[in-house]
Amino acid sequence: MTNRDALKRVPNNITLGVNVTTRYKQEVEFEARWIGCDETDFIILRITGLKSESGLNLVSAGCPVRVRVNINGKLLAFSSEISSLLNEPKRWMIIKYPIDLMEMPLRKQTRFESYMYATLHLDSKYVIKGILKDLSLKGCKFVPSGVEKFNINLLKKKTLQLQTRFPEHQEDTIIKIQVRNTPKDRKEFALGLMFMGDTSVVRQQIKRQLVNQSVLEAEKD
Q1: Which CATH architecture does the domain made up of 116-204 adopt?
Q2: CATH fold for domain 3-106
Q3: Which residue in 23, 37, 68, 138 is a FRET match for 197, CA 20 to 30 A apart?
Q4: Taking Cα atoms as reference points, which of 74, 72, 63, 57 lies closest to residue 18?
């Protein structure tokens, strides 16, 4: 399937995730709506979900841009460059037609390598520090720090809070989890966690990792 065929299937007005690297090397992330494309030169988006006005001031023509959208369970992602920005009649972003495009299914059990500091909270007094690894839509692996001592039976099948900070986020994310198992690995002791609460931030992080992965693969080619 060509890039033209894939982009033709993008529904009008669908919400997309957009990430821009500014000229100051700052990452700005926001949502946009798909307006359309002329098939060979440009794609038109309408900016809708920018959280801060200051972020928009840093975005300008020539900045690298990464776009991702979920269509019928498949992730469509591509990298390009901003051609121009317009403020009338709406906030339009016009980007150059992408050379490379990635399309792949969002499998529920797909896991991605990660390394983020995190804490598990049973209550205000019982806190376990560690590292979050192997992120997926359903859960993750949590490796307690070497100095942590705790009773694993105290944690099983209880609802805990996992606190961590995902890349490109200014604030910590707290997700309800349950300890489901202790994966057998001779090299490290770990806890298998299952997400119980809102996982929208996790889904965004996985999509971002897929896009970054596609960019790296394109650069290798």
Answers
A1: Beta Barrel (2.40)
A2: Pnp Oxidase; Chain A (2.30.110)
A3: 68
A4: 63
pTM of the model: 0.55
Give the pLDDT score at 184: 58
Residues in the chain, total: 221
Distance of CA 217 to the CA centre of its chain: 18
Convert 34-69 to b/e letters by CB count within 10 Å (16 or more is b). Answer: beebeeeeebbbbbeebeeeebbebbeeebebbbbb
Q: Say if CB 208 and CB 16 are below 8 A apart.
A: no
The domain locations on the chain are: 3-106, 116-204
> Does 3-106 match 116-204 in CATH topology?
no
Predicted local confidence at residue 219, as pLDDT? 45
Please report the DSSP string for 149-178 in residue order.
Answer: ---GGGTBT-EEEEEE--TT-SS-EEEEEE
pLDDT in tens, 37-46: 886 789 999 9
